[in-house]
Amino acid sequence: MKLLFDFFPVLLFFVAFKLTGNDIYIATAVAIAAGIAQSAIFWFRHRRLEKMHVITLVLLVVFGGATLLLQDELYIKWKPTVLNWLFGLVFIASQFIGERPVVQRLMNHAITLPRQVWYRLNLAWSAFFIATGFINLYVVYNFDTDTWVNFKLFGIIGLTIVFIIAQSFYISRYITHDTDGGDNN
Predict the structure, then answer these.
(1) Residue 180 lies in domain
(2) What are phi and psi of 86, to 5 degrees?
(3) What is the reported pTM?
(4) Domain end position, chosen among 37, 72, 107
(5) pLDDT, tens only, 52-98
(6) How many C-beta atoms lie closer than 10 Å to residue 142's C-beta?
(7) Spatial distance between the Cα atoms of 176 and 73, rounded to a whole number of angstroms
(8) Distance CA 144, CA 151 (A)
């Protein structure tokens, strides 16, 4: 259910785009409204906001707002690239800033891995995010808007699922069962 909630603005963007005869401006307005609703619902349920929702909402308002204000769909098409590159840079920076890389901070509660594996995974996620940003730009500049919208939903999610599965095979060799809730290397 959380996954569906996290992709709520993207799903509504896609549905609005398809139901309006491929009107990217209406779809963009719907996505902005959905992002605001997503953050508000999360706030009322938990009395806090998730960083991911806030970052996505800010980029959605900035790039979606520019799309609507300037009537230029290129801005909304750049949003996934900027978001992915931002995540890639944060993951890279976490290799040098703080005691643990971002991927370890996110997954530490679920699995125990050797320190060097956490750093390799973190770099892999950085590379994935940066590559996904470039792939989005390739689709933006080489295909029509309808193809880009389909890629935005199915392609990016599909790439992410494939990457997570590949990552799972990689880390399965290193997982140790932490029975005392102790420190993760």
Answers:
(1) 77-185
(2) -60, -45
(3) 0.88
(4) 72
(5) 889 999 999 999 999 999 999 999 999 999 999 999 999 999 999 99
(6) 9
(7) 48
(8) 11
